[in-house]
């Protein structure tokens, strides 16, 4: 998610608008003799992928730490505290990664950019792979600094739909129903894209508002969705809307067990939300949008 309009892909030649690159690419006449014209592009793609990987590592480690710390301290309003901290962390990391990769650090944003035609399939695949690896590394980093009791109690702050608890009459599964969790993931993903990411995709809005404000708004909207999804359901065993498949994947791979139960929801839900958002965008002809 970029601040002045998400960085588009040089490989995407199918859009009628001229694509802007991460930096000015030399014209053929400016290339050194024997230099591959694709080299600058490949270099930028892999540098951007590295930024996505490292950004996701920090994001997952920070968010999961916030979740565990907030619950462990038993504050009176853990959902509110968690949401505010999430907003601050997300906004800061977006500002840090934007100049290099466009600041996706979330497969939802990459999916949306792909479905709306802003980046190519190849770049989207590389970004999502980098984010997924970053999610796993972030979870491994968290596992390295917490003790086994915290890891077991909070499941590395993983994304859960249901959990199994021991009661007087044996094991009982508690949490949210599959259909409810899926719908919540779809709706929250669409709202996230509609209410905030669209500002980054729209060059005119991003230019008028400014990069910093766009990143702050993205963080605020994401924080609000975390707050709403955990407060409205108020169901023990359900960890709230994931809103970042890479983060959910990291904890599931490292911790395993019940975190794989319903894990597909945290991928399929956002994917459906992204498709819905892309259809909404495509239904609005550019000539009918407000111009500054």
Please outline what is shown here.
The chain is mostly helical and 292 residues long.
Please describe what this structure looks like:
By secondary structure, this protein is mostly helical. The chain contains ten helices and two strands. It has helices spanning 39-72, 78-101, 107-115, 121-145, 148-154, 178-201, 203-209, 211-233, 245-255, 265-282, and strands at 162-167, 170-175. The chain has a two-stranded antiparallel ribbon with strand order 1-2. A hairpin with a 2-residue loop joins β1 (162-167) and β2 (170-175). α1 packs parallel to α4 and α4 packs across α9 (245-255). The model is unreliable at 1-35 (pLDDT under 50).
> Which spans of ≥5 residues are poorly predicted at pLDDT below 50?
1-35
User: Roughly how much helix do the residues carry, as a percent range?
Assistant: 55-70%
Global Rg: 20 Å
Order of helices and strands: HHHHHEEHHHHH
Mean pLDDT: 80
**Spatial shape:** globular
**Quick one: biggest sheet?**
2 strands, antiparallel
Distance between the termini: 21 Å
Share in β-strands = under 5%
Spatial arrangement of strands, main beta sheet: 1-2
Number of strands: 2
Secondary structure elements and pairings:
Blueprint: H1 39-72, H2 78-101, H3 107-115, H4 121-145, H5 148-154, E1 162-167, E2 170-175, H6 178-201, H7 203-209, H8 211-233, H9 245-255, H10 265-282
Antiparallel strand pairs: 1-2
Helix pairs in contact: 1-2, 1-4, 2-8, 3-4, 3-6, 3-10, 4-9, 6-8, 6-10
């Amino acid at each position: 998610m970029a601040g002045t309009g998400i960085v588009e892909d040089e490989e995407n030649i199918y859009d009628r608008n001229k694509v802007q690159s991460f930096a000015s690419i030399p014209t053929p006449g400016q290339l050194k003799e024997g230099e591959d014209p694709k080299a600058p592009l490949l270099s930028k793609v892999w540098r951007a992928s590295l930024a996505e990987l490292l950004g996701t590592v920090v994001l997952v480690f920070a968010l999961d730490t916030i979740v565990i710390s907030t619950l462990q301290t038993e504050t009176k309003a853990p959902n509110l505290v968690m949401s505010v901290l999430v907003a601050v962390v997300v906004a800061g990391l977006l500002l840090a990664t934007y100049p290099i990769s466009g600041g996706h650090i979330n497969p939802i944003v990459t999916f949306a950019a792909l479905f709306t035609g802003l980046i190519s399939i190849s770049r989207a695949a590389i970004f999502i792979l980098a984010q997924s690896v970053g999610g796993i590394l972030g979870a491994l980093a968290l596992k390295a600094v917490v003790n086994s009791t915290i890891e077991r109690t909070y499941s590395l702050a993983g994304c859960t739909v249901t959990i199994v608890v021991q009661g007087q009459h044996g094991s009982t599964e508690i949490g949210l129903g599959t259909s409810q969790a899926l719908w919540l993931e779809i709706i929250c993903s669409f709202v996230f894209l509609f209410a905030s990411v669209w500002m980054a995709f729209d060059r005119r809005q991003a230019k008028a508002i400014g990069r910093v404000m766009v990143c702050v708004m993205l963080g605020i909207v994401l924080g609000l969705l975390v707050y709403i999804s955990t407060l409205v359901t108020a169901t023990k065993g359900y960890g709230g809307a994931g809103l970042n498949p890479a983060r959910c994947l990291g904890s599931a791979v490292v911790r395993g067990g019940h975190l794989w139960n319903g894990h597909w929801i945290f991928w399929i839900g956002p994917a459906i939300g992204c498709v819905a958002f892309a259809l909404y965008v495509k239904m609005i002809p550019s000539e009918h949008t407000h111009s500054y």
